[in-house]
Amino acid sequence: QEIIDNDFSLQDPWNCLGRFLALCRLDRKPDSRILQEIIAQDRDEPTLLSACWDLLADTACKGDVAFFERMMLQGQKHQKIAACWAAQWLGDLELVQAMLAATGSLNRAADRDTVMAAISNMLEDDARGAHPKLFDFEGNQNEYAQAVSVKCRKIADTWPKYRYFYGGYPIDIAGTVSCFREMVYNLVHNDVPPAQSLVIQRRRVEAATGVDCRQMFSNRRFSPQAALDLLDDCRRSIKEGEYVVGVRYFLGNSLPEADG
To answer: Judging by beta carbons within 10 Å of its beta carbon (0-12, 13-18, 19+), is residue 38 exposed, middle or buried?
Structure first.
C-alpha cells in the first residue's frame, strides 16, 4: 500500500517500477509515460532499462507504439535493439517495418541476429514443426526485408481483424497456456524436447495471466513436473471466454488497443 500511495519520482526509478506494477495488479493502468521517461534518460543500469522495456511492451497503450517506433528509428544502437526485442511481447504487426529498418542500420551480426530473432518469434511458429526461415535467413538485407514483408502481408490477409501476433498467429492466452502445457507434458511423459524456449513461454504466460510461475524453476533449473502441475492448475482455472483471442492481457486484466 505504501508503494501505491507514493508519487512517481524519477529520482527513484525502481520505486516507480514497483508502483507501476502494483497499480497494474489492481487493474488501475498508470500513465506509461513514466516508463518512457526512465528509458529516455538512458541510465547506465541495464537491468532497470530491460525491466522498463518489458513492462512498457506488456502494458502498451495509447502513445506507446509511437515511442517504440521512434526508438527503433532514431534511438542509439542499444536502444534500437532493446526496443525491437521488447516489441515481440507487444506483438504489434504495425511495428515490424520499423524493426526491419533497425535491422538494416545495425553493423554487428550479433545485433542484427537479436532483432531478427524477435521478428521471427512474432511471425513464425516453430512449435508446429515448421522451420523458422526468417530466423536463419540466408540472403542480403533487401531479400530479408522482402521476405518479412511478404510474411506480414500473408498474416494480415489471413487474419484481417487482428493486430497482435506471436508465432505467426493472433495472440491467444488460453491457447498459449495449453501449448506450453503440451510441450511440458511431452517432455515429462514422452521425453520430447520442447520446440520453443521454456523461459519465453513461462514469461508470456506469467505476464499475461499473473500466475506465479517461479515454482517451474528450482535453483535456476527447470523442474518439468512442477511446471506441468502448475500449468494443469492454470488451465483448469481459466473460465470459458475469460481470454479473448486477439486481445492483450497483463496480469489477467485486458488492455485497450495500443494506438500510436
So the answer is: buried
Spatial contact of 223 and 234, defined as CB atoms under 8 Å apart: no
Q: Which grid cell is 173?
A: 492466452
DSSP-derived 3-state class of residue 249: strand
Bridge partners (DSSP) of residue 221 are: 218
Distance of CA 235 to the CA centre of its chain: 21
Q: Phi and psi (nearest 5°) for 187?
A: -70, -45
Task: Evaluate whether 57 touches 87 at the Cβ level (below 8 Å).
Answer: yes
Q: Which residues contact 123 (CB under 8 A, 6 or more apart)?
A: 96, 134, 148, 151, 152, 155, 165, 168
- Tallying the residues shown for the chain, one arrives at 260
C-beta separation of 50 from 77 below 8 A: no
> What distance lies between CA 237 and its chain's CA centroid?
23
Backbone angles phi, psi at 239, to 5 degrees: -80, 150
Answer for the pair 156, 226: CB distance below 8 angstroms, yes or no.
Answer: no
Q: What is the mean pLDDT for each group of 10 consecutive residues in the chain (260 residues)?
A: 60 91 88 93 94 96 92 97 97 97 95 96 77 83 95 97 95 95 95 89 95 90 94 95 95 80
The DSSP element (H or E) to which 204 belongs, if any, is helix 198-209
Stated pTM of the model = 0.90
Paired residues of 92 in beta bridges: 164
Residue closest to 203 by CA, chosen among 192, 194, 216: 216
